[in-house]
Every structure is written in C-alpha cells, then in structure tokens.
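Students often ask why inverse folding is considered easier than folding. One informal answer: many sequences map to the same fold, so there is more than one right answer. In these notes we will look at a single instance of the problem. The structure comes first.
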C-alpha cells in the first residue's frame, strides 16, 4: 500500500501513519559511569571501547538551534538523555538554553549518581521535571545490575536532593528483568508510594545488539501490576495525554500511582510521536532504527534554518516505523543502534 506523503513544512508535520511529531529525545553524551547489564554490558563497553570524540558531539548551541526548529514542526516535549546526561560537562548550561525556549516541556533522565551534586543547579537553570532510574532497593541486586558497585543509598540521596530542589513530581524508572530483579518490584513499590514519587516499571527491551535479550527474560507489565495489586490494590487511571508511553495505575486507597511501560507486550507504535537525536547529531525516527539522518553535517555545513527545517520535515513525513508492533516477524533489522548512543 502506498501512503500519501503529507506536507513537510507544517507545524503539524505528520508521518506516513498519520502520527504528529511531538517529542524529541536528545542524547547529550554516549558515555556513562554505569555499565547496566541490560544497556552497556561490560563485555561490550569495556576499557577499550571507543566513545565519541568531543568534537563529534553537538554543541549546546547546535542542540538549541535544532530544538527551536523541531518546535516549529510541533515538538512540545524535550527529554535530555544519553548515556548519562549528567556526565556531560556543564549540562546545566544546555538546560538553561532550552528552558529559555518558550512553550517547551523540558525533562531529563538520569541514573541519579551525580544528582545530589547537580539537582539545585539543574533546577536553577530552569529544569522542571526529572526522571531517575533505579532498579532495586537491594544493594546486592542493584550493584549486580549497574555493574560498577554503585550503592542504592547514593541514588536515593540524589532523589532526595531533587525533591529538596523543588522537582515535583519525580519519576523513577525501574527496568525489570526476569532472574535479576523481579523480587525488587514490591519493595520498590512500597518505598516510592511512601515517598510520593511515581514509580514506572519498564519491560526489558531488545534495544541495541549487545544486551543478550530474550523474550523469556521479559516480565510483562500485566504480571507487574498483578504482583503489586495483590498487596496494594490498583485500578487503571486515564492517560494524561494521547500517546503517553506509560500506562497509569493508581492505588485504590488514594496513596498515589505507578506506571507500566509495556513496550514489548503491548506495543504503542501507533501513538508514537517521538524523534531522537544521537550524541553526534543523527536524527532517528525509532528507537530500533538501523540508520539515522545526518543533521550535524547540515548544521556545520552552513544550512539555513529553512533548509534544516525542510530536511527534518522530509525525514518525519517519510517515517513508517513500528518496530515493536512487528517484533518477531522475520523482517527484523539486524544492526540495531545502542540505546546509550541513540538516547533512551
Ligand atoms: N543514563 C540515564 C538513565 O539510566 O536514566 C539515561 C539514559 S538510559 C538509556 C534511559 C532509560 O532507558 C533508563 O531508565 C534505563 O533504565 C532504560 N533502559 C536502558 N536499557 C534498557 C532496556 N534494554 N530495556 C528497557 N529499558 C532500558
Ligand atoms: Fe548508563 Fe543509563 Fe544505560 Fe545504565 S541505563 S548503562 S545508567 S545509560
Ligand atoms: Fe516508537 Fe519505534 Fe518504539 Fe514503535 S518501536 S514505539 S515506532 S520508537
């Protein structure tokens, strides 16, 4: 079936499946101080791993310029990610540049390791929302997952610093992998319900080509909701907006909510409005894309804003990605890009 190509210069730029461009995830570094086994396993990201040269990274000014252009295509939400965004030097200066663009909802995802130090500076720079990743309350389990011996208490310290700096709500992401941390589901739910932060459980995904993903290792969102509900009854809550990635569930006693991100068992491609920019300025239209579109060459080659805008529009209007919906079919791409590079 041939689909019509929509107008590529409209603020409501739509792709070939009619999906608008609303979210932009920007990877600000491909480096990380963790080696989470499901993301940057040590065997593949060892001491000899070649990370990008500094000159290859988009500068803060380049990121801000591209962001302004994406906004004209309808982008409303920006998420800074990586790699670990807080290891990029002076990242709060980038936050300031982006926070100064009116009408954008700006957020950042971090492993929390440097948050105790950085929370106030990020807040002062204009960051309104933050998501912290934490996979267990159990030190042995968490250390086995981050694989750099990083303790739970330090992440909690970071979360507390973020709360003290005024971030509200704070979201906490927990990737659940069978055999690794399913026993942490309930302790995590109890802890963050008490603290009043929104815990979101993420199904272990087959991103990249190095994490040894198997479907058997996925604990489904449904199982997670059942496990929690048996002790702390849950009921479904309405999405905050169309295309929200996390399915919301609230505690029946009114003590808060959780989210589940069922990217494997309940694919949400039909509502996917997300584009990603890699650390070196490649534009990707799907987390599972096998190739990107080089915005950095345009930026550094003297392209005007109109030319950049036309290039972005052209890429989005040609988009037909729906990897999660067709996962398991035989036409799967073989050379997927690592999440730390493309931006989680
Ligand atoms: N370093 C930051 C952090 O960990 O929060 C930001 C980047 S990380 C790639 C973004 C999110 O992707 C994290 O919440 C992480 O847990 C999640 N993630 C990484 N690999 C994953 C996988 N294989 N399946 C599901 N989620 C994954
Ligand atoms: Fe680093 Fe985040 Fe990937 Fe863990 S999930 S290795 S913290 S980028
Ligand atoms: Fe979006 Fe691709 Fe994920 Fe589907 S698989 S939800 S198109 S990023």
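Output (designed amino acids):
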């Amino acid at each position: 079936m041939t689909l019509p190509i929509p107008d590529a210069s409209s603020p409501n730029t739509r792709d070939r499946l009619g999906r608008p461009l609303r979210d932009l995830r920007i990877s600000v570094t491909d480096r990380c101080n963790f080696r989470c086994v499901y993301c940057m396993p040590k065997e593949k990201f060892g001491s000899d791993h070649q990370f990008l040269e500094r000159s290859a990274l988009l500068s803060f000014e380049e990121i801000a310029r591209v962001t302004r252009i994406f906004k004209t295509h309808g982008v409303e939400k920006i998420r800074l990610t990586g790699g670990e965004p807080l290891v990029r030097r002076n990242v709060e200066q980038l936050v300031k540049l982006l926070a100064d663009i009116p009408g954008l909802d700006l957020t950042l995802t971090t492993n929390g390791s440097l948050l105790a130090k950085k929370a106030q500076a990020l807040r002062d720079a204009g960051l309104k929302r933050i998501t912290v990743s934490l996979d267990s309350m159990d030190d042995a389990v968490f250390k086995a997952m981050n694989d750099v011996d990083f303790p739970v208490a330090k992440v909690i310290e970071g979360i507390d610093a973020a709360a003290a700096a005024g971030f509200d709500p704070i979201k906490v992401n927990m990737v659940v992998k069978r055999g690794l941390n399913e026993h942490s589901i309930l302790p995590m739910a109890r802890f963050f319900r008490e603290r009043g932060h929104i815990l979101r459980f993420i199904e272990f995904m087959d991103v990249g080509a190095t994490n040894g993903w198997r479907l058997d290792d996925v604990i489904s969102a449904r199982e997670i909701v059942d496990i929690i509900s048996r002790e702390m009854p849950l009921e479904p809550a309405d999405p905050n907006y169309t295309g929200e990635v996390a399915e919301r569930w609230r505690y029946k006693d009114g003590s808060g909510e959780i989210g589940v991100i069922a990217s494997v068992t309940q694919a949400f491609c039909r509502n996917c409005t997300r584009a990603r920019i890699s650390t070196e300025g490649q534009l990707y239209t799907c987390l599972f894309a096998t190739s990107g579109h080089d915005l950095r060459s345009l930026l550094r080659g003297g392209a005007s804003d109109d030319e950049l805008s036309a290039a972005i529009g052209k890429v989005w209007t040609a988009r037909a990605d729906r990897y999660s919906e067709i996962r398991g079919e035989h036409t799967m791409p073989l050379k997927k890009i690592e999440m730390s590079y493309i931006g989680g």
